[in-house]
Amino acid sequence: MEDKAQIQEAIKIQGEVVRKLKSEKANKEQIDEEVAKLLELKARLGGDDGKHQFVLKTPKGTRDYNPKQMAIREKVFNTITRCFKRHGAETIDTPVFELKETLTGKYGEDSKLIYDLKDQGGELLSLRYDLTVPFARYLAMNKITNIKRYHIAKVYRRDNPAMTRGRYREFYQCDFDIAGQYDAMIPDAECLKIVHEILSELELGDFRIKVNDRRILDGMFAVCGVPDDKFRTICSTVDKLDKMPWEEVKKEMVNEKGLSEEAADQIGEYVSQHGGMDLAERLLLDPRMAQSKQACAGLSDIKLLFSYLQLFQVTDKVEFDLSLARGLDYYTGVIYEAVLTQAGVSNDAQNGAEESVSVGSVAGGGRYDGLVGMFDPKGRKVPCVGVSIGIERIFSIMEQKAEVSAEKIRTTEVQVLVASAQKNLLEERLRLVTELWNAGVKAEVMYKKNPKLLSQLQLCEETGIPLVAILGEQELKDGVVKLRVVATREEVDISRADLISEIKRRTSKA
């Protein structure tokens, strides 16, 4: 049993942390994370009778979404879905859990992050880690050889979540993939065009898309003297270059992965290089790289990719970066990752300067030609290329932008409130709101028999309802409805027969 005094001291310190964050008007997610720690400490202390107290909270690495957050989320999803559909994609869905065997051996060092479900005497199951492996299983199982599909769904990872940076254990992925045998680099270039379109449309701030090729990496490792059996593990280490300085990455390669210092230094020379088509042309002339056939094939494809990207008008944001590795085992060709270089959220209250939100990668993907074949009994391959949009990180930025902007976010789509100016008009209000609903108008009434007109108008102000249809004794006699525009307070009498078309006309402009 922990010493009670120690826990009380920890509660006191944690309470100070929470108070400090609140006084500094820190990020809401950061505050929530520290409050959760405080509640956990209080639970360990127990109640007055010394029993463990149940703490009402969401599990670690998960969160609830309130109506305002959901409104932002819907807007983002709609933007992404519109883009996927614009490029001719259809959608599918797969189970949230798969056979454990389906997921095993597909994720390299990240396999330890898979959630295994408790064995209950049936099949051994795991929660899906991404949407790509289930997609490959779906293609192999249904013998599909070509499809352009998108899939938006939740995935699960036993990560140590940094929720302030948009990292969770349960989160959405938005995937777009093209499966089928096509001419080189055309589908790959379209995937990059899609990333460019989505990030530009969401106005998240400046971004760049880094591109590399697994064949170039493998060829580079070979000519630098990395043993074949160490390719994948060294690849996972190189993938950490966006989070760690080269010195630490080198140390991991040499001390933990057993690579020679000389090989690590040669890798270091290459991974520091980035550019465009010019870099690919330069590396094709590199005497060391020329020794590797697969590296040359990758470099030729990068050149071809850039020629298509020029036609798609996206080369301003794309760069060929030899340090990009993407740790997943199933990539076989082109790989890419989009990172925000400046997230465009200013926080004047704190420091009077533009403050960058630390979110890292917001999209990633690549070519995986062998994955479907791993599931096919005859090993038949279906070439695939795809991209995954890191939606949770995008939400983090959008929410912070909404917090610092004065713009009010509507959480409902109600177009008109049916109100009454006098008492005893509940039945008339219900008749009118039914007419509106039946005509497809988004309408509401207050759930009171005799609400005050002022409180009905205040409800519209608070929730952003643009119109009020007001009924009174005189209006009923004249067969009209008083239509009030909430923003300007302008009022007009509209005949009951024209009301629906007038509401639709006024709200279609909004």
From TrEMBL:
GO molecular function: ATP binding; histidine-tRNA ligase activity; identical protein binding; RNA binding
Pfam families registered for this protein in UniProt: HGTP_anticodon (PF03129), tRNA-synt_His (PF13393), WHEP-TRS (PF00458)
Entry GO terms, CC: cytosol; mitochondrion
Residue ranges annotated for the WHEP-TRS domain, each copy included: 3-59
Annotated InterPro entries: aa-tRNA-synth_II (IPR006195), aa-tRNA-synth_II/BPL/LPL (IPR045864), Anticodon-bd (IPR004154), Anticodon-bd_dom_sf (IPR036621), His-tRNA-ligase (IPR015807), HisRS-like_core (IPR041715), HisRS/HisZ (IPR004516), HisRS_anticodon (IPR033656)
Keyword Cytoplasm set for record: yes
Source species, domain of life: Eukaryota
Signal peptide: none
Family: Belongs to the class-II aminoacyl-tRNA synthetase family.
EC number: 6.1.1.21
Species assigned in the record: Fundulus heteroclitus (Killifish)
Occurrences of domain Aminoacyl-transfer RNA synthetases class-II family profile (ranges): 32-419
Broad enzyme group: ligase
Protein name: histidine--tRNA ligase
Keyword annotations from UniProtKB, A to Z: Aminoacyl-tRNA synthetase, ATP-binding, Cytoplasm, Ligase, Nucleotide-binding, Protein biosynthesis
Reaction it catalyzes: tRNA(His) + L-histidine + ATP = L-histidyl-tRNA(His) + AMP + diphosphate + H(+)
Keyword presence, Ligase: yes
BP term (GO), one: mitochondrial translation
